[in-house]
Amino acid sequence: MAEAQEAGGEIGRIDFDPFINGQDYDVSKVEVGEPAYAAGKALVRVNVVNFGQPDEFGVLLVKEADGWKIDDVWNDDAEYSYDLLDILQAPLP
Q1: Measured between alpha carbons, how far is 37 from 15 in angstroms, rounded to an integer?
Q2: Please, are residues 60 and 43 in contact by the beta-carbon 8 Å criterion?
Q3: Residues 92, 44, 30, 26: what is their CA dihedral angle, to the nearest 10 degrees?
């Protein structure tokens, strides 16, 4: 992948798992909300409990010829918020 080459063997842009908002996990609960559809896209909210702490993140899906694909993942957590698309498009530090 281009990111692996650009990182030169170092950690790339993503140094955490965006689906648990961290590096370690002990997920005890996952709830996927009902999608909200508009203009060939779907927004889904996902709630997880990781190490006993609740967390919520959003997933934006786009409909392509061969099915639904993830376009973005974000989390508005007060302590550590992120937008995966922004991270992936930013230059390496």
Answers
A1: 31
A2: yes
A3: 10
As to burial, measured by CB atoms within 10 angstroms (0-12 exposed, 13-18 middle, 19+ buried), residue 41 is middle
Rounded-to-integer distance, Cα 35 and Cα 25, Å:
25
* Residue 88 vs residues 8, 51, 93: alpha-carbon distances, Å: 16, 27, 12
pLDDT at 2 over 70: no
Domains in the chain (CATH in brackets) are 2-89 (3.10.450)
Give pLDDT tens digits for 31-49. Answer: 999 999 999 999 999 999 9
CA angle 6, 17, 58 (to 5 degrees): 110
Amino acid present at 30: V
